[in-house]
Amino acid sequence: MRVIALILVLITSVIGFVMSYGFAYRKVTGVLYSSSATMQSSASVTTER
Fold first, then answer.
1. Cα–Cα dist 27/22, whole Å
2. Is residue 14 within 8 Å of residue 21, measured between CB atoms?
3. Entry pTM
4. How many CA atoms lie within 13 A of 40 on its CB side?
5. What's the Cα-to-Cα distance from 12 to each of 3, 5, 24, 27, 41, rounded to whole Å?
6. CA-CA distance, 30 to 32, in Å (whole number)?
7. What is the 3-state secondary structure (H, E, C) of 1-48?
8. pLDDT digit string (tens) for 3-45?
């Protein structure tokens, strides 16, 4: 039972770290490449139609 609890704690901590890291990464890249991201999003919208 203790091993299962340890594994669950490790998995949840890893998932939380990945989510927080991904959010910070998206925030930084959004600030750095806001112009290119808007150009890509508009291009994707036009191609979808």
1. 8
2. no
3. 0.46
4. 6
5. 14, 11, 18, 22, 33
6. 6
7. CHHHHHHHHHHHHHHHHHHHHHHHHHHHHHHHCHHHHHHHHHHHHHHH
8. 999 999 999 999 999 888 888 888 877 776 665 645 555 555 5
Asked if 12 contacts 20 with a C-beta cutoff of 8 angstroms, the reply is: no
- CA 41 to CA 22: how far, in whole Å? 20
Local structure of residue 49 (DSSP, 8 states)? -
Within 13 Å, how many C-alpha atoms sit on residue 42's CB side? Answer: 6
Q: Are 30 and 37 in contact (CB under 8 A)?
A: yes
* Tokens 């949840």 sit on residue: 12
